[in-house]
Design goal:
The protein is of the alpha/beta class. Helix content is 38%, strand content 22%. It has helices spanning 46-53, 78-84, 101-111, 116-129, 146-158, 176-193, 204-208, 228-232, 235-240, 247-257, 269-279, and strands spanning 2-12, 20-31, 35-39, 61-66, 69-70, 85-88, 164-168, 196-201, 213-218, 221-226. A hairpin with a 2-residue loop joins strand 4 (61-66) and strand 5. Helix 3 crosses helix 4, helix 3 (101-111) runs parallel beside helix 5 and helix 4 (116-129) crosses helix 5 (146-158). The structure holds adenosine-5'-diphosphate (ADP) and magnesium ion (MG). Adenosine-5'-diphosphate is lined by residues 12-13, 20, 22, 40, 42-48.
Length: 284
């Protein structure tokens, strides 16, 4: 699996008095098994950007190649692209509609024309991957907690067996526990299946612990595309575009400034703790 994007520009309402450039000449590549965090403040273009990757929005200019094929070429199978690039929208629970959870997850694969046995196996497998308790499978999705509903929505997309899973702000509106649960769930299903994941968020804190690459959007421009360490090294610039680095970054940089020999690139609390203990020669 590979996605290559070249000079992608998207202008909403082009030619109208209220036209606006939501994406400005973006180029990047996503490789198999990448775990990417796509970060940017509200309105920076994240949702616009990901909707291009499965063909829901068409670029004003630029090219997208999926496995080497130009998706804008005449005759390209967009339906197949939408199956392969699974998109979980923001607040996906609004799209649950079946009378029970299991039926809801079956809906997509059933519409692919699979046999009942095949689509039911997929639904079971997907619900297992998102860690939903089996006792809930035949209950109404509307009785679930916010985080559980979101798991069901993710399972519905997984049941299509996509190559790439894109999640638009999966933590939006959840409390801190619900947020950690859903992120841990995404990490676990990725570890088990090896699926390529693009996680959209406006919070660095959210993605810092999970992803191996961060893309930062600012006003339609792809500002950084690098490892979390290299991106957080720009924490001052990130602040200027309305994004804070993880709190650990600030603490570690302050400690370095105060003369301590600790690692300013520590991203997680555990890394920071280890680095500080090492400084004091304390063995755990
Ligand atoms: P994000 O997901 O990062 O919050 P969006 O991709 O939703 O950003 O929006 C990027 C820009 O495009 C914003 O200025 C937004 O107002 C504008 N925009 C988004 N959707 C539309 C639309 N359907 N029509 C016109 N402008 C839009
Ligand atoms: Mg958005």
């Amino acid at each position: 699996m590979s996605i290559v994007v070249k000079n992608l520009t998207h202008i909403y309402n082009e030619g109208m008095p209220f036209s606006s450039k939501a994406l400005d000449n973006i180029s990047f590549e996503i490789k198999d098994r990448d775990f990417v965090g796509l970060i940017g403040h509200t309105g920076s273009g994240k949702s616009t950007f990901i909707q291009h990757l499965n063909g829901l929005l068409k670029a004003t200019s630029g090219h997208i190649y999926y496995n080497g094929k130009d998706i804008y070429e005449q005759g390209y199978d967009m339906k197949e692209l939408r199956r392969r690039v699974g998109l979980v929208f923001q607040y996906p629970e609004h799209q649950l509609f079946e009378t029970d959870i299991f039926k809801d997850v079956c809906f997509g694969p059933k519409n692919l024309g699979l046999s009942r046995q095949e689509y039911e196996i997929r639904a079971f497998e997907s619900l297992r991957l998102v860690g939903l308790d089996e006792n809930l499978y035949y209950q109404s999705p509307f009785d679930l907690s916010g985080g559980q509903k979101r798991r069901v929505a993710i399972a519905g997309v997984l049941a299509m067996k996509p190559d790439v899973l894109i999640l638009d702000e999966p933590t939006a509106g959840l409390d801190p526990k619900g947020r950690d649960d859903i992120l841990d769930c995404i990490k676990a299903l990725r570890d088990e299946t090896g699926i390529t994941v693009i996680l959209v968020s406006h919070s660095m804190e959210d993605v810092a612990r999970y992803v191996s690459r961060i893309m930062v959007m600012d006003d339609g421009i792809l500002k950084y595309d690098d490892t979390p360490q290299n991106v957080f090294a720009h924490y001052k610039e990130l602040e200027q575009i309305g994004l804070a680095a993880p709190q650990v970054t600030y603490i570690m940089n302050d400690l370095v400034k105060a003369g301590m020999d600790v690692n300013p690139d520590a991203i997680t609390v555990d890394e920071a703790r280890d680095s500080i203990l090492r400084h004091f020669n304390i063995k755990m």
